[in-house]
Amino acid sequence: MELTRQLVNVETGSPDEAGCLLFIDGRLVAVFVQLGLEHNSGLAGKWFLEHAFGSMDKNDQPIFDDLEAAESWVTARLSA
What we know:
Order of helices and strands: EEEEEH
Structural class: alpha+beta
Radius of gyration: 12 Å
Shape: globular
Largest sheet: 5 strands, antiparallel
């Protein structure tokens, strides 16, 4: 399984625009957005699952400390 990240700006309708597209084997599987300073201090800088695709397209929208944790969550979900 080959993971690829692409950093992008995402039009979220809020100041949270720093985003990351996550691809596995060339297919887009998730879009993450980094939470900005307007969020409480415990959330600023963390990564929010904006949208997942395919078998991961559930109502879950977890928040991760960093992109490595987000990638681990995605690969665990896809391996299950």
